[in-house]
Amino acid sequence: MAVLIRANSLHRECARINQVNPVQGLISPPRNYSRIWKPPGHGITKLNIDATYNRKTGRGTIACLARNSTGNIEFGRTSSIVVPSVPMVEAFALRAAISLARNVGQTKIVPECDSRDLVLACWH
Q: Under a CB-based contact definition with an 8 Å cutoff, are residues 13 and 101 in contact?
């Protein structure tokens, strides 16, 4: 639960930095989910985030790919982690992506993931 709270905090911080209303959200809402990638606006980096989880081993893999408004890859990361559940690995993926973006100096970011549960947790 602490990871979800921290991910929510980072989400709100990104919204503040980007001067975006958190209610509109930086993560695509589940009802508008689309499989077609759309580039971010000029000067904004989109963080495409994904995660997998193996219940038998308790291991997850997180991935982030950052692209600019022309679709060019700016940076990316993958990691393997030990976590107790699917929601936790998804929250860690969001947190790692935002952290990575901050570490490389990106301040205008738009995280995007397909985790309905994480999206809903970030809105409430």
A: no
Give the Cα separation of 98 and 79 in Å (integer): 14
pTM of the model: 0.66
Region of residue 75 (phi > 0: left; psi between -120 and 50: alpha; otherwise: beta): beta
| pLDDT tens digits for range 21-67 | 443 444 444 444 456 778 899 999 999 999 999 999 999 999 999 99
Strands 73-82 and 45-54: unpaired
C-alpha distances in Å from residue 83, one per residue of 1, 15, 17, 51: 12, 27, 30, 12
Please, what is the average pLDDT of the chain? 77
Three-state DSSP class for 21? coil
Contact predicate 118/91, CB 8 Å: yes
